[in-house]
């Protein structure tokens, strides 16, 4: 179980995430929505350890991980889709996924470790490449991939790590109409496992309607709505905050 308690961060005088308290349980896909600049990505960065909290706490299975760095949080089961800068640009697609499989099995991210005797790890790598439809590109350098394939590779590496908590930040942004369904299908299948906690920042309404079990709405860094998707999306507060069509009145 993942929990944030009064989690906040200030950049100078600007409070980008403002005392957000939320509990995320396994078997639930929670979508985090809100207009541009609402603090969604910053909230993810606070959870994953990319940014230090100004106040508040992050707890994973009851343990306070607020002061841990991102790699230590990853080791404890918190997984964020790799960003382009974290891919090994000069290694092939297959080598990148292999390294993530190796890391999950406790082998660390050591490129030089001998792999070839671990047929089970290689088999796992092949399966993930097939599932993400990256098999044909397996020998291409990560740096040479088109944007959509790089994003698929980020997701493939996350699947290879198989964390207990998955954080997806707009996983299909910039993907083609052919690539987006591949990633959505992986998330759909992940949901059926029931033992994984999934957080998803997503703007696309059709994706939210299909995948979200719960929707949390951020507006100007604060949590303004939280609940079952149909009722959350229907509330006037959310219509305004989410669509950004009018200033949100203070909640009573
Ligand atoms: N490192 C930073 N330094 C200063 N301000 C920042 C920093 N990171 C984020 N912000 C500010 O914090 C606010 C929240 O940004 P964030 O990217 O989290 O919003 P978002 O909801 O993810 O938006 P979008 O939907 O456009 O991705 C914005 O006003 C942004 O300018």
Automatic annotation (TrEMBL):
GO terms for molecular function: ATP binding. Residues 2-245 form the ABC transporter domain. SUPFAM superfamilies: P-loop containing nucleoside triphosphate hydrolases (SSF52540). Keywords: ATP-binding, Cell membrane, Membrane, Nucleotide-binding, Transport. The keyword Nucleotide-binding applies. The keyword Iron does not apply. Coiled coil: none annotated. PROSITE patterns: ABC_TRANSPORTER_2 (PS50893). This is ABC transporter ATP-binding protein. It comes from Ideonella azotifigens. The lineage of its organism: Bacteria, Pseudomonadati, Pseudomonadota, Betaproteobacteria, Burkholderiales.
